[in-house]
Automatic annotation (TrEMBL):
Annotated source species: Latimeria chalumnae (Coelacanth)
Lineage: Eukaryota, Metazoa, Chordata, Craniata, Vertebrata
Entry's Gene Ontology cellular component terms: membrane
PANTHER family, per database record: CELL FATE DETERMINING PROTEIN MAB21-RELATED, INOSITOL 1,4,5-TRISPHOSPHATE RECEPTOR-INTERACTING PROTEIN-LIKE 2
Designated name of the protein: ITPRIP like 2
Transmembrane segments: 12-29, 49-67
UniProt KW keywords: Membrane, Signal, Transmembrane, Transmembrane helix
Top-level lineage group: Eukaryota
All residue ranges annotated as the Mab-21-like HhH/H2TH-like domain in the record: 342-425
Amino acid sequence: MPVYSVNLKVFWPLVTCLCTAVLCLYHALWKGRGASEGCQEDGTSSFPLFKLSLVFLICYFFIKYCAGQDDRLLARAALRSDLQEQAKRSLLETYYQSRVRLSPHLLGHSKAHVAQIVSELIKVGRSEPQEASLIFRGDYIQIGSAYEQHMIHSPDCFDILVPLKLPPNLRTEPLLGASLGLPGPGRGEAICRLEAPRKSEWGKGLKSFGACFCTEGQKKRHHRHLSPALVLKWFHLKMQRCLSVIKYRFEERCLISLSVVEDRLILNILPRSDYICCHIFLAVRLIPAIHIGDSIFLVAQPWTRTDPHPSPRSEAVWAVNFSKLEQKFLSWVKAQAPANSCHLKCLQILKALRDAKCQDFNKNFSAKWNVALSSYALKTALFYLLLKGPLEAWDGKFLMERLEEFVRFLVESFQNQVLMHFFLGNSKPPESLSVPKLIKEACPVNLLAHFDTPILELVSLQLLSAWAHVHKVLKHCYNGPHYLARTPRTPSPHPAYGFSTSSS
């Protein structure tokens, strides 16, 4: 049996018209009857009451109709909003799958190839120790987005920490942040230095070490500081000798070379097409590092290239690297969050949106945009959001809500000019991590301290605009996969925070 429903668009206007017609008809009949019978006394008592009743009904039906229109408009607007949200999610999902997410096969092959060559380099370097010199510890640390599962575009850039060991009778005394007194950009960086023993404590075997790797202290001449610039120089020569030993072992598999880009040592790998199915150029940044605590390393950073006004003391300044702690935190989140958690997916989408929007800016502002929204800043914001609420909220079905929250958090941080370092000076780190006391008691570091207010305000406005018009931003930004390029990308430095991570 068919079921019929009332069309409210027709029903309420029709009822109003009928009531109006009845009122007019009754009014006409009553006037005619009064004229023929001359009964004016009765009319004055009954007609006005009936007339007022009909007018009331007409007004009621008209108001009901208008209210129904408002409800329908609201419902239509809500439906349109839902459709737009679904369309935005569909666009992001499609873009993520086709242009952001890396092929597990390609990434796996690239990482395996890098690991094989780096392992051989470290093995050769460790087998050739020199007296009273730095030596390779014998292992290497894989860091950066490629090993944290949030790399985007192409798996062609990798970062590797190469731990070094000091001579056993040397002591280290790391000093953090504000105690170094660096001007300008130093306010927003995680930096550290090493101190060697006093001059009177040096034995004969350490004199050559001091001459090769140390600089005199600025305040106390009897103190010496381990120089990152001198360590980098030694490291470059050491790796070049190691490469000359293993180069011919791999000549049938790939072409290997070393290059120095702004004092950064890059290992370039070009697999031969008949050796590996994923024939792409690979760029691996090799970073000398010194272990100072539980999962904390000091890395040699060429500060003079990133600081327009270098301090004399910057010659002895090292960068603090927390990559191992970050990897431990992400592993803990992965174990606690839902199986289809979208936290890394959100990070990848925000990085892709950053890169896409950057194409609309001039060279000057695009550089500031990339630093303000660097991978490290985005990752720091994500860490705070992960601790803000229950991890169940990061289920994949809440992707749009979490992306919206991510953008709002970044905008608020830029407007307040505050995004604190997740580890340095954080007295209440995640309970799942063992953070050294030295790090917890350090002065807190604001990653946005060196930005001017107008720049951060402009970045926040552009970020909101990019998110509001994400469909327009993403549709014209793709020019093909990066791994089809003729040369590999160079792992970009991280000037704002004192250490390097891959740009993706």
